[in-house]
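Late entry, written up from scratch paper. The run itself happened at the end of the previous shift, but nothing got recorded in the book at the time, so transcribing now.
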Amino acid sequence: MTFEELLRILKRWGWLALIPTALGILAAGTARPSVPVYQASIRFAVGIRSGSYRDYDYEGYYRWLSSEYLAAAVSAWIRSRDFAERVAAELQAGGLNLPAPMIQGALASDYQRSLLVLYITASDPETAEAIARAAAEVVRREVGQVWPQAGEGLAALTPLDVPVASPVAPPLRSRLEGPFRAILGLLVGVTLTFIAYFMDPRIWDRKDVERLGFRVLGEIPRGK
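Output as recorded:
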């Protein structure tokens, strides 16, 4: 297909492409903007204090090994409903009432050897920081209750960061949703244009006659 033929198709049926394209642009303009999200994080150094227990000896090797197991266990506990309920009670004691399911959805964790990382995501920075502080307090104070094998008073989780919430970039999907709708409308419009062209049985000019395999002997100019 030559460029001249393409112009003929657009000139004849291009108006069909305008309707879906306009609808796509309208849908892109009315797309709901993404809700701002803030995230705070705290890193904890997980360790086992030396005590009178013979379990932790051999020049500190078993304390290091136990701290790695404890980091993995606490990381799993942070994502549990039990931990969310304890954080909710801590917040309520400070005058902030948040439901435990909401807190559980805001918490995430990760660990690597003896380093534990706590992530808190919320719709405003104040809430994220408040949950972070309460979670840090619960982790340090109640870890021995949940994991008694760590030894009473021997588990040490030292926070390495002060929780400061910062805005999180919106996901790629929400950023591309508007342009995708507009481009989709344009593609649908172009498709309809070509479908209408190839299914049109009418003869508009000599090009249509020649496309059917006939030779044009002459033509009457428009307006005659």
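The mean pLDDT is 82.
(Scratch paper discarded after transcription.)
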